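tl;dr need the bound structure. longer version: we got a ligand (adenine) that a collaborator sent over and nobodys looked at where it sits. i said id run it. heres the input, straight from their email, havent touched it
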Amino acid sequence: MKKGNEDRNIDSILRPAKWEEYIGQIKTKENLRMIIEAAKIRNEAVDHLLFYGQAGLGKTTLATLVARETAAPLRIITGSSIEKSGDLAALLSSLEEGEVLFIDEAHRLNPAAEEVLYPAMESRKLHIVIGKGTGAHAVSIDLPPFTLIAATTRFDMLSSPLRSRFGAIFHLEFYNEDEIAEILRRSAKILGVKANEDGLSILARASRFTPRTANRLLKRARDYTVVKNLKSIDGEAAKTVLSLMEIDEIGLEPVERKLLELIAFKFGKGPVGIRTLTAASGEEQATIEEVYEPYLMKLGFLKRTPTGRVLEEAAVEHLMREKWRN
Ligand code: ADE
């Protein structure tokens, strides 16, 4: 196997293959299973679905489960990979009956490609223009029944005509610590690594309530047990791994602590505008908004207000605790 492939291989091994193995997102799972069951009874393709939420919460996994449950082929693309509307038209016209088309990062679809999607989603029609200039004419092609599953981290960036064409929209939430611990327990078993409850709960606490992050920490902890010839991931090992990765006990990375310190000490806890924060931190606005802030807000460390970002007392207390520790 080539270098660098091992981790990604593990990711697909850890991905739940059955609903019974999928932990958390209970409401979404319940609703999806009902939609699928009804479609099966009516012998129809599952309605178009939209999943939105933070990265790493299982949107792709859910799409795989929907396809598997309906025994449908699954095609995965990302919004930014579609350069021209013709690319999407070609793709749609090659779909098989019942096929599931998963478009990740759907907010990155260009507007011309979106236009192609509307009639395809609504009435399974593909409108294409053949020829150029005065000889150009429009033709309409019938598409087979198919299911579009779109995923996005930025619901606000999806156009409303697109949003309105989904039969169901699911907001994936952060997992709770017990669910993450359960996911870690399952993953550890699959990877054949022993971990005690202490070790698992330390990793769970640093997982940002996100399975992908939890599994990443577990992989690094597993590396550590191999290198140090340890029998299992205990509390001590888990803590050491976090500290090697410069991740604190609640999963914050150095850049996020730096961001909190900036707001606390340079901007007097805010309110500070996102542009100012971007300039002062040197981080990209999109990364701040899509990666760092959602978790900081979930922790109750940060608030977005009309006048800017405001730091909460809990964040200051955390920074102080970290300072004492170091
Ligand atoms: N691995 C990643 N996400 C998972 C989930 N929701 N349940 C079980 N294992 C997972």
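gonna send this back to them w/ a short note. The first strand starts at residue 49 and ends at 52.
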